[in-house]
């Protein structure tokens, strides 16, 4: 059945925790303290499938389970195929390691000059500042270190990381991630952003966080003031399904936007969660209404035990075909594969170019209609231009 939803409705309320005082519910530390972290707790609230029960029993040896009460409310407890449920409740499939799966699928450890810092691209670094998250995504690329269930013993070294950035003037862009950086105290975030801002060659600071989605209560006015003080701070949030776009998340995004934080969204393409054009379209439409620009759809990395959640790449290409031209350009993210082993993000696009010959580029539009555009509109090509064109054509025509 095609996905439909009531576009005028934004989920809100305390759901199962209606009896809790509003002041507690809206307090992020209460949400953290009351997370569901064990099989026993989970079974108090819902009936699990045998697959889920087995997954929960093994979670503490792979990636811990944690679900905030707020996010748990989004689960349809009567539906074993609920797309929210699949993201956070462990399943037995996590214990099966596929032939091409890896502990460190995008080769971060090999590009790490100091613990917690990944320098893979020339002008930017990834700064992993914690191994903890508000809730744990069952397909996490950093399952090896996040939640420390695998005894990875991740100890980010703030000062060493900062020193490395200070000593490398080519680093103009720092991405804070983890784990989830927004799980740190205001004081620590303030300190870290202040130190980074003081480095003259650091032009661009961004944060990757799923906290707005798992724990929107953390986006307090005080935290927003810190972003304002050190701004511009860019932020990528992480939603996968339109049901995650609640009134509370919308309000949190508004607070961030008003504090001058430009927002993007990263989704991971997940089997039977969002590998469907109607679902993705509903998601991106909600995102732009929340002031969030859809940024990336990631093909799920080849992380160990993720095969049961990994969608076929062709579904991603099909979704892109159904978005590009069929909806607002601002709503269209880029589908990427993070090349296994550490090759970086590579855009994966539907094929629009049909041919490049000496005179023109030939291509299809979003409706499949054919068009041509001349290669040289200003007169005869000189020999250099000619070489460039041939080279591009060879690269494109595979
Ligand atoms: S929030 Fe991010 S780092 Fe944490 S488990 Fe999810 S994907 Fe991994």
UniProtKB/TrEMBL annotation:
Key words, A-Z: 4Fe-4S, Iron, Iron-sulfur, Isomerase, Metal-binding, Pyridoxal phosphate, S-adenosyl-L-methionine
Top-level division of the source organism's lineage: Bacteria
PROSITE patterns: RADICAL_SAM
Residues annotated as signal peptide: none
Catalyzed reactions: L-lysine = (3S)-3,6-diaminohexanoate
Enzyme class, UniProt record, top EC level: isomerase
Modified residues (N6-(pyridoxal phosphate)lysine): 345
GO molecular-function terms, A-Z: 4 iron, 4 sulfur cluster binding; L-lysine 2,3-aminomutase activity; metal ion binding
Upper lineage: Bacteria, Pseudomonadati, Verrucomicrobiota, Opitutia, Puniceicoccales
Domain Radical SAM core: 119-331
CDD domains: Radical_SAM
Cofactors: [4Fe-4S] cluster; pyridoxal 5'-phosphate
Binding site for [4Fe-4S] cluster: 133, 137, 140
Family: Belongs to the radical SAM superfamily. KamA family.
Record-given protein name: L-lysine 2,3-aminomutase
Record-linked Pfam families: LAM_C, Radical_SAM
SUPFAM superfamilies: Radical SAM enzymes
